[in-house]
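Methods — Computational structure assignment.
A single polypeptide chain was analysed. Its primary sequence is given first, followed by the predicted tertiary structure written as structure tokens.
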Amino acid sequence: MWLTGGTVWDSARGAFRETDLHVAGGRITGLGTAPRAAERLAVDGLWLLPGFVDNHVHLCVNTEKAAGNNVWQGALPGTIAAWAVRAARRTLMCGITTARDVGGWDYHEIAVREAIEAGWIEGPRLYCAGKILSISSSSEPYYPGMYAEADGPDEVRKQARRQLKMGANLINVLASGAVNSTK
């Protein structure tokens, strides 16, 4: 599909210009003049930007509340997953088309990633870490679904393998422990 009549940043020229933009498979594939027979969408007067990437999100954390301990204490089953679905859509609507979730909650973020990829819900491309690997810490109990405690090389390997088995794309190691408790 061609988006016609929009204004884009042309990095080769170092300036903004009006041009047509070709999109295929969800990606920008070219600039130029749309062929006459091509499928078109007129975007006259609009500024076109590429999707943005956010390298540090936690879709399962309620960011509308002040930071506190055990943010999901007393939540009904499914609440965290429902929150993550909402957060994924909001992230996409902000122009972020790819995000790296560096610490989810009981793998809800991985389920959300799978639902996005299956086309069930809207959201950005997600790369997920699963649970954060952390040394034993007094703060971990306040975030019971976010951390996997691992003391020593053998436990770190075991927990890293568990995250990969659960569908993680990357491993997040918090060597200092979970120190973000407000207690």
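Note: Residues 2-42 form one domain.
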